[in-house]
Amino acid sequence: MLKVPEHQVAGRQAIDGKLGPLIDNSSHFYKPLQDDDERGTGELTFYHSFSSNTRIPHHIRRFFPVFYGTQLLKASDGSGLRPHLVLQDITSDHLNPSILDIKIGSRTWYLEASNDYIQNCFHRDKTTTTVSLGFRLCGLQIYNESSFWKPERKLVRSFTADNVRSVLRMFVSSNVGPEPDFCFADSVYGGCDGILLKTWFEDQTMYHFCSCLVLLLFDKESFLKGKTPFAEVKLIDFAHVVDGNSVIDHNFLGGLCSFIKFVSQVLADSKGSTMED
Amino acid sequence: MLKVPEHQVAGRQAIDGKLGPLIDNSSHFYKPLQDDDERGTGELTFYHSFSSNTRIPHHIRRFFPVFYGTQLLKASDGSGLRPHLVLQDITSDHLNPSILDIKIGSRTWYLEASNDYIQNCFHRDKTTTTVSLGFRLCGLQIYNESSFWKPERKLVRSFTADNVRSVLRMFVSSNVGPEPDFCFADSVYGGCDGILLKTWFEDQTMYHFCSCLVLLLFDKESFLKGKTPFAEVKLIDFAHVVDGNSVIDHNFLGGLCSFIKFVSQVLADSKGSTMED
């Protein structure tokens, strides 16, 4: 049985008769192909290229959802059969995951795009934290005391740098409010995933990941029960990946480094707050 | 006696009655203050802040020209006395230096600028290599066999990624033409200046260096005579430095990493070509 993903925090949703992704009970995530994909320029093209690319190191491949091919399915908007990407459902092993979707890069447009697309992105980039921070939050849910805080898209888009800092603190705290306890900061932010990704982006010149998201997942309940994995880092949304043309993805890399710095500041604050205790 | 700098390859020049920088015989470079500076928002403000900033590591300070203060001088455009920044003349110890001026970053505008300024930069960034490579060449001169190759500004602006690669090869070769010998690649590009700068930019959140240049100087004659320094790396042009607001300069960092990758590719090619010999 297909259903609407419960823990989707950004992107098009399969609600109110609209076209969006679906999941099943076997950890599959079905993402409807856009018309672009059918012309061979979008996400499907990327997954085909990436999954057969022997130059992707094993320790980098794990940051990407597993790709199982495509399948014809009844689309969620009632328009009949449509090809869907069949991907790994990242949230399937988690009951109440906290999730951040972060769009990386200080520029979400690319030279190959249409003028209208560029102008729209340019405006959105200037009016969110994309230009100033090199990334923006696109959606989030934070689980605390048996409920989720899941702010509306419009609110998330209005976030300032200080709001982003607060969210990053709240994400790794056992409480919600002005005095975060940073309880899980070291366990969630203290790993080496950021460094591994950064090192790869300093070198790889195959793909430019325009408008791509980093999904951070943290499952507090699993962590407290000693279950692994309690945290995940995945890159998602590859509809605007373009050829790297022997140049590194300096836009993604710069944004990623800025995000890493934000996270490391939260980590440093958490250590400061522990030492004062 | 003040004179027009012989080895200036980009920026406003003090020729044809225009306002531009001057040098003396004591290694000083006099740069006329723009009206912005007099309002306290431009290059002078940066030099005051930077020179008194105790958080700049010693090994980073050496990448910046020494700042000696300001001085009232007769402006080169005949408009009378005008305050000038007094800076270190980077080229003064070199008879025939090869020079590259590289504007770092995939975005040369910044949010605090006027709409007109942003639109002009946005257009220039898209039509040069700024967006695609994360940097662009702004000017250059390459010394070879008793003469300089110093292409006109218009030609430099039209450079593609391949042109940039050719220039980076030619810069470290003893010959000019389609088959560079990469003779000096290891000596010029094999050092750790790029890594030192990159490491600092991954961490520093004090300044955002918009529209700033990296000047690379290589003095072949000094090198062949065993004289040091035969190469210099300096950051110049700080008219558009803005407050970092606790965020790293992800725009400069991304562009710098892309430039480092280009240079490392030339270095790898040079080793390949040596092994084939």
Entry keywords:
homodimer; 35% helix; 277 residues; 11 strands; five-stranded antiparallel sheet; D-amino Acid Aminotransferase, Chain A, domain 1; four-stranded antiparallel sheet; kinase (chains A, B); ATP-binding (chains A, B); globular; 11 helices; alpha+beta; 2 domains
Shape estimate of chain A: globular
Summed up, the domain count of chain A is: 2
The CATH architecture of the largest domain in chain A: 2-Layer Sandwich
Lateral arrangement of strands in the main beta sheet of chain A: 7-6-5-9-10
Mean model confidence by pLDDT of chain A: 94
How many helices of chain A? 11
Radius of gyration of chain A: 19 Å
Structural class of chain A: alpha+beta
Helix content of chain A: 25-40%
Major interchain interface with per-chain residue totals = A-B, 26 and 26 residues
Percent strand of chain A equals 15-25%
CATH superfamily of the largest domain in chain A: Inositol polyphosphate kinase
GO molecular function, one term (chains A, B): ATP binding
Family (chains A, B): Belongs to the inositol phosphokinase (IPK) family.
InterPro entries (chains A, B): IPK, IPK_sf
Catalytic activity (chains A, B): 1D-myo-inositol 1,4,5-trisphosphate + 2 ATP = 1D-myo-inositol 1,3,4,5,6-pentakisphosphate + 2 ADP + 2 H(+); 1D-myo-inositol 1,3,4,6-tetrakisphosphate + ATP = 1D-myo-inositol 1,3,4,5,6-pentakisphosphate + ADP + H(+)
